[in-house]
Design a protein that fits this description.
Blueprint: H1 7-17, H2 31-37, H3 44-49, E1 58-68, E2 84-91, H4 99-102, E3 106-112, H5 116-121, E4 129-140, E5 143-154, H6 160-174, H7 178-188, H8 195-211, H9 215-229, H10 233-248
Length: 269
């Protein structure tokens, strides 16, 4: 078990925000609600931080599925074990290679038994990525409880071998085994991973290469991945700094072979 646009929430918010004199006479004033209007999906972490304003509204979230959870409902909500299935999931931005993050998935996603969305999610593998759309039905002890109405699977996803190699890369980095860490991060990369994960892996590999005295190779490797997944601010900042250092003192850095070509990216939307 592991949607589309945010149309429903936009419609609901438009109705709530309408002045008595007519439709569309007030513009969003900015801030949190104004920012939300421009989003197709929102991060789960953002919803968890500020759920109250969305009680009773529909939201669309990109999640990484962990699996089926358990329903323990002492708060007398609609989510009874006889009629609902509980899901555990991480947000799309969750760093699952961090043990504390991995061990604390979000546990308040609920799917009605026998529904179409339950059939869609049945048997979905761990780490599979989904766009879930549902109602923020309850806020219990500051946490949103979400009644999931639809699910759409995304192609790009993290997998177990990549996750293991990422964890290994960080362990080797902490031991200052730079070449081994770079190799582990390189092994973690793959064309089926989400773009932001591939970019993170490339940055960590490149940083390990730089610490191991291989800045030219680091730049080449990071450039190769950026050409495929697109440039992000952190990768751009690293490339800018390293290129400047190479221009100032090119003889200090070891020449290297061209980085292997990165395969095509799998679209995550």
């Amino acid at each position: 078990m592991k949607s589309s646009l945010i149309c429903t929430i936009l419609l609901a918010m438009t109705v709530v925000a309408q002045p008595k004199g007519g439709v569309g006479q007030q513009k969003p004033r900015g801030g949190w609600w104004g920012n939300l209007l421009s989003e197709r999906t929102m991060e789960l972490s953002r919803l968890v931080d500020r759920p109250e304003g969305l009680r009773g509204h529909s939201v669309s979230l990109v999640i990484q599925l962990r699996g089926e959870g358990r329903i323990d409902n002492p708060f007398h909500t609609r989510f009874e074990a006889e009629t609902y299935i509980s899901l555990e999931a991480w947000g799309d931005d969750a760093e699952l290679w961090v043990r504390e993050v991995y061990d604390r998935p979000f546990q308040h996603l609920f799917v009605k038994r026998g529904s179409e969305v339950a059939r869609t999610l049945d048997g979905a593998p761990e780490y599979s990525r989904w766009v879930l759309t549902g109602e923020v039905a309850e806020i219990v002890k500051g946490m949103p409880w979400i009644d999931v109405a639809s699910a759409r699977q995304l192609k790009a996803r993290l997998d177990e071998p990549s996750l293991v190699n990422i964890v290994k890369g960080y362990m080797l980095r902490d031991l200052k085994r730079w070449d081994a860490a770079a190799s582990a991060f390189h092994a973690a990369d793959g064309v089926t991973l989400p773009r932001h994960v591939r970019a993170m892996i490339a940055r960590e590999e490149a940083k390990a290469l730089v610490r191991g005295g291989k800045m030219t190779l680091a730049v080449s490797r990071l450039e190769a991945v950026v050409r495929v997944v697109g440039e992000d601010p952190r990768s751009a900042a690293l490339l800018k700094a390293w290129r400047a250092r190479l221009e100032r003192a090119p003889s200090r850095h070891r020449p290297s072979k061209p980085a292997p070509k990165s395969g095509p990216v799998i679209e995550s939307r």
